[in-house]
Structure formats: C-alpha cells, structure tokens
Task: structure prediction
Amino acid sequence: MGQNAIKEPVITLSAGPVAAYQQVLLGMARPVHYDFDPYFQAFYEQVVGKVTRALRAPQPALLMHAEPAVGLEAAAASLIGPDDVVLNLASGVYGKGFGYWSARYHKDMVEIEVPYNEAIDPQQVKDAFKRRPDIRVVSVVHHDTPSGTLNPVNEIGKIVRDNDALLLVDAVSSFGGMDVHPEDCCADIFVTGPGKCLGGAPGITIMAMSERAWAHIADNPKAPKASILSLGDWKDAWHRDKPFPFTPSVAEVNGLDAVMDLYFAEGPETVWRRHGLTAKACRAGVKALGLSLWAAREEIASPTTTAVRVPAGLRDDDILAAARSGFGVVLSAGRSETKGKLLRIGHMGPVAEPIYAVVAVTALGGALRKLGFKCDVGAGVEAAMSVIAAAQN
Amino acid sequence: MGQNAIKEPVITLSAGPVAAYQQVLLGMARPVHYDFDPYFQAFYEQVVGKVTRALRAPQPALLMHAEPAVGLEAAAASLIGPDDVVLNLASGVYGKGFGYWSARYHKDMVEIEVPYNEAIDPQQVKDAFKRRPDIRVVSVVHHDTPSGTLNPVNEIGKIVRDNDALLLVDAVSSFGGMDVHPEDCCADIFVTGPGKCLGGAPGITIMAMSERAWAHIADNPKAPKASILSLGDWKDAWHRDKPFPFTPSVAEVNGLDAVMDLYFAEGPETVWRRHGLTAKACRAGVKALGLSLWAAREEIASPTTTAVRVPAGLRDDDILAAARSGFGVVLSAGRSETKGKLLRIGHMGPVAEPIYAVVAVTALGGALRKLGFKCDVGAGVEAAMSVIAAAQN
Amino acid sequence: MGQNAIKEPVITLSAGPVAAYQQVLLGMARPVHYDFDPYFQAFYEQVVGKVTRALRAPQPALLMHAEPAVGLEAAAASLIGPDDVVLNLASGVYGKGFGYWSARYHKDMVEIEVPYNEAIDPQQVKDAFKRRPDIRVVSVVHHDTPSGTLNPVNEIGKIVRDNDALLLVDAVSSFGGMDVHPEDCCADIFVTGPGKCLGGAPGITIMAMSERAWAHIADNPKAPKASILSLGDWKDAWHRDKPFPFTPSVAEVNGLDAVMDLYFAEGPETVWRRHGLTAKACRAGVKALGLSLWAAREEIASPTTTAVRVPAGLRDDDILAAARSGFGVVLSAGRSETKGKLLRIGHMGPVAEPIYAVVAVTALGGALRKLGFKCDVGAGVEAAMSVIAAAQN
Amino acid sequence: MGQNAIKEPVITLSAGPVAAYQQVLLGMARPVHYDFDPYFQAFYEQVVGKVTRALRAPQPALLMHAEPAVGLEAAAASLIGPDDVVLNLASGVYGKGFGYWSARYHKDMVEIEVPYNEAIDPQQVKDAFKRRPDIRVVSVVHHDTPSGTLNPVNEIGKIVRDNDALLLVDAVSSFGGMDVHPEDCCADIFVTGPGKCLGGAPGITIMAMSERAWAHIADNPKAPKASILSLGDWKDAWHRDKPFPFTPSVAEVNGLDAVMDLYFAEGPETVWRRHGLTAKACRAGVKALGLSLWAAREEIASPTTTAVRVPAGLRDDDILAAARSGFGVVLSAGRSETKGKLLRIGHMGPVAEPIYAVVAVTALGGALRKLGFKCDVGAGVEAAMSVIAAAQN
Result:
C-alpha cells in the first residue's frame, strides 16, 4: 500500500475478479483456524451446508481450494476416463478451451462449435447424440464470459440426461447472478465460485456433484488421487468427522461463509433481479451510444456481463485506458479470440445495481469520445434510465 | 458465525494452519481488484519483489495460487521429466510422500530413508551420488512437520550442487521461522508459503526458482501447460506487463503483501530469534513435565514445532481434546506414520513468543493430568521460564 | 504501523481498554453510513434494542457518543439539579471522583468514604438516609476499577429505592463480566460501555435510564441542552423516525452491534462464568506467588480485575515494565491514590479465559523475580491450575 | 447485520458522515491497545505528529475524543471567558449555532449575520472591530455545511490578527478537501475531523491550537477542568510520557492513523483537486438539469458540498427518497433553517471523484422526474462530462 504509483480504481466493473462486498472482505479477515480443530471442522460442514442450499443440490457441495479454472481442470481430470467419448460444446473461448483439457483424458471428442457471439442450439446436441450414441460426457459453458453470451443449459441438460450421458456445466460467471441451478440443468458436475456474481474472492471453487458423477469418477482408473486434480480426495471432506486431504484455504472458506450469508439475507431472486435489470439498462445505454452489442441476439446476452463490439478504427486497450484514466472506471477487454473485438462491462455482485449501468455508459462514452468517436452520452444515459424507470413502475 | 455449537479456540498452537497476525487478516480484507487492471498488475509485481527480497533470491519469486502442497505437486510435475533419476530423501511423512508424486514422472528413484525421528546424514547423500552418478534431481524436506525435525539442507545442497544435480527443498514450515534461504542451500526450487512461520493464510505458495530449474522445466517434454500443475504458465506473471494465465487468488496476494511488510518491519533476525527461543523454552518445559521429545537429538528439533512423544498408555486425541476443552488451547497430533505417536506444539508466526511456551506446557500438562498422567506442571513452567530468563541476560 | 520503535504487546491483560474480540474489530470496519439514511436509522434502533435486551431494561437504552467517563459526567450534569442533596459513596478513586462532578451541580453532598480496599456497607447507606432524609440522588461505583473491588449495589439499590431517592450506578467495568443489571440494583441511571468486559472499543457509553430519571432531568432547570453533557438531547434518538441531535459515532455503533451479537451468541451466563473462573484462578495463583490481594476480603474482589499489592521495596512501574519486556504481557498499575500501591490484572472480554490466569501469574512472577523478589512461579501456576481443574469436575 | 428490512445504500453522497476509505475502515479494525502501554503511547504521539503535519501547524495538534461538534462546544467552553466580547460570524446554521454556545460563557456578543446563501464580507469584520475594539474572540465557520457555502477565512483571519483578537475557525467539512490551514487563516483554534473530506469515521475531533489560544485558556477562570469540555485536560496528552486524562477512543485513533497515511500517500494537492473537480462537474450538471444552486454566487460554493434549491412544488424528503429507492443513492437534505429549501450532494473523501458527479446528477434528475419535474438528465450528464473532459486537457 502506498508505493504503488498507479492510482487505485474508483469503480470496478470488470468481468471478474469483481469488487467484493464489504461484508465478504471482512469475512476473509476472520481468524485463521487450524483445520483439524473441531470448531473449524464444524464450521466447514456448515459452510458446505450453506453452499449446498444455495445450489439447491441434493448432494453436499464440493469445495476445491483454488480458483474455478482449477476446479474445471480437476473435473476434467477426474471425470473423463480413457474410454469416454466427450461432446464439447464451444460457443466461446472457455467452451473451446475445455476441449483442450478433455483431450488429455478422453478417448474421443465430438465438438459443436458456433460463432463466438452465438449460442449452442439444443437441436445440435440432439443431433450429435444421434450420430454418436457413444457420447458419455458432455461439457458446456453456461455463460462464456469472454463473449458475454449464454447457452440454454436447461434444454441441453434435458437432452443429455435423456441420452444417459454425464453433463459438466461451467456456471462460474452466471450462478448467483441469475436463475441457474444444477438440478434444473441436469448437471452432474456444476462448477462455480464466489468471485463473480456472488461478490466474493476468486480463490476457491464451488461444485455440485451428482451421484452419477461420483460413480463415474470411482470407475475411472485414471482419476487422479493425492492431487489437486482429484475431486475424489475431497469427496467426504465436508463432514466434520473426516480429515482434510490437504490444507483447505481457510481464509477463502471464511469469506465464502460471508458470501452465502449475504446471498440468503438478500434473497436469491432479489439478487438475480438486480443483475438482470442492470444488464438490461446497460445494453440500452450502450446501444443509444451508437455501439453494437456483441451477442448476435439480445436474448442470449448475459445478465451478468455486457459485451460490446469495439467500434471500427479504435483499439480496445485505448478505450479501457481512457475509461480508467478519465473516470477511474475499470472495464474488461475480450480474451483470446474475442480480444480486440469486444469490451466487457461486468454486472456482478455489489455493482449489479442499476446506477452502475449509468456509470458504465458514461465512462465508456466518455472514453470513446476522448478517442475521437462521436457518441451521445446523454442519450446513452437517458436510455439506461428509461429501463430503470420502467422497472420501478 | 454464531450457529457453531463448538466454542472457538482461545489460543491456537497448531503446526499449521496457524493463527495469522491481525495486520495480515486485515490485509486479506483489502479490496479485490481486477487482475488485468494496471493497479493490480503493479501491485502484484511489488508483492513478488517483496517476496523475492525475503527469500534473498536472485530470480523473481514465483507465486502459485493454491496451498504449498499444490506448489510441491506442481514442482514435481513440472521439473521431473521422463528421463530423470530422482534421489528422494525421506526423514518423515512429507519427505516420503514426495516420492509418490515423483513416481508419476521420473524414470527411476533412489531413496534414502531414515527413522522419522532422525535426520538425513549428508554423507548418505554423497554416497548415493557415488553409487548413482545419474541422479538428476534431489528432493528434501527441510522441516518435516509431522516429525518436527530438521534436515541439514545447507550441507546437502552443497553436495547436490557439486554433483550438478537439481535440488528441490520443501521449506514450507521452516522459512520465516529460522535462517534458511534458497541460495544458502543451493535450492533450485525452494517451496514455502505464508501460512506457517510467516503468520499468514495457507492458500498460496511461494517459490524461489533457479535459472537451472527453469531451463530443466523448459526441456521437460512432459511439463504440464495450461494447468494448475504448470510452473511455466506463471514464470513471467510477476511482470506488470504480462497477463496472468489464470486468475490469481487476489485476496491471498493482498494478505501476502501484509505478511511481507510485517516480516521486514520486525526484521527477519528478530523473527527467527523469537521462534527459536519459544521452541527452546517449550522443549525445556516439556522435558520437565517428564515427557520425551520425539526428535532423536535436540539439535534436529525444529525451532518452529516441538514434537513430543505420547506417553505410554495415553491416546493422542484424548490429550488434544483435554487441552482444548480445559484451556481452549489447540495443539496438533501427528500425521500418517507419526499419528498416535507424538503431539506437536507449533511455534509459528504470532505465537512464536516465549509466553506461549508457558501456555503450551500448562495446557499439555493440565491435559495429561486430567487423563491420570502424573506430571509436575509447576516444574514444567519453571523450566520454560529459566530458558526465557536466561535469554534476557 | 511500522515506524513505532516499541514492540506491540503480545497479550494485553489490562484493566481497560482491553483487547477486543476479532468479530468486534471487524464490526468496526463495516461501512460508515450516513446518519440520516433510513438504513442507518433502522440499524441504530436495532442496536439500541439489543443493548436494551442485554441490560434487561424496561426502557430503551441510551447511547452517548464518547467514552463512559463522559457518560458519567453527563449523567451528573443532567440529573443533579441545584436543589438536590447527593449521597456519594466512595470506596475508591472513581467513587470519590464522582463527588467532584456532583459538586458542580448539587446543593449539598453527603459522602460515605471507606478505605479503598474496602466496600460500602449497606447499613451505612441506611444510616445516611436516617440522618439526611432529604437525600435525592445517590451515586455508587459497582466495580471501582482502580481498586478492583465491588460494592453491594443490589442491597444499596433497595435502600435507595425505599427512601425514594434516585440511584446512579457506575457499572462500567463490571457489566458484561458478571450478573449485574439496572433493575436488580434499582438503578435510575446505570452506566457502562463496550470497552471493558464486553470486549469492544472504548469510545461509546451505554446507559439504562428509568422513567424517574428522565422525569428528574426534565424537572432540572439547569440540565444541559444542545451539549455533549445533555442526556435529554439523545432521549428519543433511538427511534428510527427521530433525528440525531449531533452526529453519532457511526463506527462505534457498528462495533457495539457486533459486541451485542457475540454476547448473546455465547450466552451471558457463560460469559460471566469464565470471567469469574479466570479471576478466581488468578487470585489463587497470585497468592501462591507469595503476594497479597489488595481487596480486604476476597468476597469483594472483582471477577473482572485482580488487584495485587506491590511488594515492599519494589516499584509498580518496574514490575509492569519487566512483565512487558520479558513476556510481552501488559498489566495495569493503580490510579491516583492506588497508584504505586497495587498492580491490576484485567479479566475482561476475550482474555477472561482461565489460561490467561496462568499467563498473568507467570508474567507477574517472572517480572518480580527479575527484580530480585523471590517467588515460586511453579507454585503460582499450580494453584491457578487447581482452581481451573476443580471447575471442570 | 441481516435483520434490517431496509436495503443498504449503494452509493452514499451525503454531506457527512461520509463513506470511509476501505483502508480507514481496516485501520479501525486494528487491535485495541491499552492506553497506558508504551506502544500505544508512542503510537498516539506519532498519530498526533501526522495530524500536525497535515495541518501544517507549528504546535502539536490536539485530539478530542468525540465528534467535532463536541470539539467546538469544548472550544467555546474553554476559550471564551466571562470577560470576553465575542464577534460571531453567521452565514449559516452552524455559524449561527456557535453563538448559542458562546452565549453560555461570554460577556457580550456582536454578531454579523448574512443570508444563508451568502458569505461574510471581510469589510464587515473590519467595521465591527472599529465599532467594538473590545472584541476578544471571533468565531467563523469556513464551510457552513447546511448551506454548502464558504467564508473567506484567510482574509477574515488577517483582520482578526491585526486587531489582536483570537480566531476560532470551524473547518470541519472543508479541511482535507481544499487548501485551508490554520496558519494561513491565522486561526487560534482550528477545528476539523476525519469524518468528512478525509474519508474517515466521525467520532473524533482534530484541532490546531495557537500558543495564544492556550494562554487565553490558561487565563480563563471558568475554563472547564476534568471534563469532556476541557481542552486543557488534553494539552499534553500527545506526549508519550504524559498520561491520558480520560480514556482515548482507541479505535478512532487507529482509524485516524490510516486516514493520515492515505492523505499523505495521495498528496494533499491531488486530494483537493479531485474534490474541486467533482464539485465543479456536479454544479454544471445540476444547472443543466434546470436547477438552481443555493449559493448566491458560484465562487462561494464549496468544493466539498453542492447545495441545490428544491424546485418549487416539490418536497425535499420526497426527492431524497426517490433517489434512494430508485438508485440506492444517498443525498442530504438541509438542516434547521435550510431544511426544506435545499438538497445537498457531498463530495468528500472516496466519493470526491468526478464519476460521482455523474452519479449525483443522474440520481437527482431521475428522482425529480419520478416526482413529475421535467428535466433533461442527458443534458445534465453531458454538462458534468464537459467539465471532466476539460480538466483532462
């Protein structure tokens, strides 16, 4: 603190890690307890109980003690065996990326890839099963964050279940910001974390696991053991009488407890509503600035992130830098294939409040204008405000 | 908070995770910044700089975003290639355990194993190189926490370097509590973390890497990439202009910054001195209680953990439970092979203060007495106090 | 932080301000809200409700936004009018001191003074009323902290009520550490604060007020208004619909909320029990060191502070300094008349745990020994442990 | 936490208490140390040193342990003696109010009162001294918060000094947000606090005292002693070797230390600049909404608070409630005489950032529109943005 020559941001509207709720930050400052002490063991069981309830899951939630990308890698490593045919659904960078992890373990992979501003059509999944009834595992990203787009996981999940395959859903940046739950999408492994819509810190993974998933892992001869990539190591760790295989990230668990308390105190439906409204207001404002949404159709635009096309002739990094220096507002660029093509405004956790749609439109508009792009910021703000006003009547 | 029926501990004297310094807890409550924001990127570089300075290392320190056991697993996965012959030095549970990770990657392994209350003799290492000049990688645990014993890493390191092999040192529970540094022990990979002697939280790994280690990893065709097990992914991440391959655990980095500031503010030598004095006082007290130290010789007893033999006829868990319920004091049991045979008293971070030696002796003595073991707690305390008093003159 | 050349204490066993609970410290770090915002107004009403419940009081508690000595001064200024005859009960420095405040406002004062290691005898109060039936206000300190002694406030209160006078009780350093409540002692103004036995910070005053007290204040023509010394200014401020007369100390209120939650979560009876046990163990230990308690009789020794006579030939400050430098343990000296004559060991809040009796005995014994006073620390610790062990059977 | 049925605010733009910086909140969560412990005594001296440096004062700053209104009351009580003629300068509610405090102590008072949207003209002060050369004490509010207007204290101060009178300056809500310092305005008592522009909590008072002020207090036979209203009690308390007369508010001192570190780390000039720019942008935006500033002339509008006339036909509370419910944005109403006539937008501490001018304009405009007042929010935002953009070139 102090020696950093760069000014701290004023408002962070990133696609994650996101600004955390104050109560969560203070949760992370609770005492670090010894993981074998009965107080901590009972506490851990309680936290898992809260997470399970938030997931609306029938089985105890699974916590993995690293950020959700690790949870996903571990899920791939543990679930996908050398005899498994995998159907990978790629509507964005993260969906595509899962295929590379899968490739380390599977026998064969079928991939459905759509343009990265599009969503997977459930019919494509049906068709894939018809062509390849030997598909055992399906992987889908609910909200492909680098695109800001959603896939219809509930419909896809039903098809997967009907075909008796296992479904892995990456809901890292959607859970907590909208109505998505493992049972509703028939997920066998459902991966999320506190560092996005739940407004917590990013260093821990939340998973919902089905009995089918655990059975498949138990049958996988190559499933890692005594490894950070092993889900099985942690299967029973939620229980206060079972030891931890490795040291849990105590402070992250402390923070997660606070995350869950906040989520229930506000009420999930209320939380989702403000995410949705903020995104809707933001999209209206961005369009009124004269910009185009990245998503091919507004129905697949995520309520937790708004992706906007970079106007022709401008560089994404210049726009971000101008918003940052002019207003102290942090926005996100794209990643990999979407880098340079779009900008992202996060609506997650504490900034999933309509006033931040105005902040985003202003900072983005001001930045564009500074770079010579003509846009009507007043009109952008008015458009956002119309959405907000309409929601109150 | 609140619903936990078990009373929170009063004083935690565990072998880790340990009680964290208040300033570190508050450090973990600093804002969660977006990892691509220039403020965070500059901050991360600064933190790595501080860690590097604490390690007295010539190369930028490496941070891995999970607890140190993951750092060790990743080190094995990244460093040990299919052509490597490994010499594994096992003087305890953790030393032995590294061999299992090594076995996933190495061509062949030579192991020197000594009783778990003993230390590796450097001469044994010399001899091993004579018998097997093809040894490429040597692994040693400095402080094998489940035994509370130290290995002579500086002497071992010299031999390894003379034989042109690479040395991996697990200094997780010694660094920060005594004078051990990667250059002094010729470590090519030196692994530690903030959650032990540095009085921080356990969810992040600190590593010092030599150029030779990086080169060996670069040459390892099986070194993981795009994985939590890949050191290489993070090689350049310390630099503010380089992107993070995955999301860093922002809150853990925030806490680590506070850890480092405290360490320098107090002065490393001062920190080590109080660890050493606390352990010495504790050993004196424990012996005066009529108990035996686990370590074969007091010279190899760690200044950061005191391991004590469980008296005949008593169960370790009963003793821990009695100390916990009678005094609110948390002690540690053994692990794996040492479980049931010894108890451990941690002297790490904020409780590495001589008064806590008295607390430990009292709680342990009181617990034993409650279980029918006769011991002179007054004598134990007096013995500890003699050590403390002597140190002040 | 950092530039302070003096080492931070390891363990604070002062008579207050005391070490605060971690949850309270984190409570103080909650957002500072605007005092006219409806959220804060409702929150304030809730906090007052919790405090009222803790006090077991029929009227809403009164918060004054400065430390309890200010609360006491304001109580004197508001309650005592120019026609009032005051009976001041002085068994220590604080009791005596209240008389000086009273003198600014009263018509006449009767004072009963006993040696500062003694307690007021209720019969003396009865007698005073016989001699002076015109006494209107009686003032008594429950625990006169500079002496570590208790007065029998319940008996005294009954007499005062029978004589139709008003009673002001200073319970600053007893409430929260033992069973004392305004209704039980017929207090009309009962003053305490979070910074002692409740383990909070010292910057706010808690009061219970009777209707009779409010009526007397309303009738007092000299009662301050628009002043920090006016209780009346704040009479209705607890209600969410009433404005604050001045700015409340928002962070102290935040901390107080956490204090109350902890108190109820643990259960008052449990909290009192550990205060009492710690003090009892401490007294046993101190006596076994060969020292004398300050209190004339152990029955009047407070469960929240143990006062010990300074042995002949030694200086109090030297003893404190030796405990501080040798063990990092903070103890308290006396104040005013008791300064130089006694030392005090606080048993308040988080350190009201039996293990800290051992810490106190050790640090005190070690300090004395360093100064040449012969004492058997082992015996002291054993005596404390006997008390602790007996309490568990 | 949790039971409060009212939603926590999203963004607080009040005139104080204001949202505190996160580092300050965490500062308030540092350990509560015993006030007689040498660590705390040295720490307190350091904090006073930092405050003194921030004030650019030649004498050690004075801390009073309650909110600044108490500091002002104590200043009146301590400074103004029974022989003193006071000149009270009243350009607003707070200036007028000081006269009531003065009346408790002075011999006679001269008052210059101007309309509450105006400022005191230095010529008026000169004239007053001509008419009444016996004026001994002058009181002025720099920023009369309920009006959002500034008085020319530097000019006034010079006149007072030339007339050999003493000057008391209330700079509670201006210091830290603009260039005002006791020496520059010849203040003998200069009162401020951390809970406004410095972004701290409101429970402590900062004062700069001249030697002349201390001498006058020493000569005042009625100056309080042993009282919260006594400045003299605390005169030497800054020194580590001097005891505290009463218990300092330890947590507030901890927070103040963090406040000062932040202020210096950012640089006072930088802090003032963003306060000024935010206010300027806000004023432009508010005017473009079709509203009138309260201040008679923009030159006297404070850079730390923008006061806006309530449009005819609307009620202030309705507007605040609409901004709060529609956007989660907290604004302030007027106080006493200005209540109902104006609204206030605070630009203090962490929200003294230009983007919050946009937030304020949007929330205010949206609220007005909801109540049927026609206004062009887009134009308001554009006007604010023009100011921001101009400042960057």
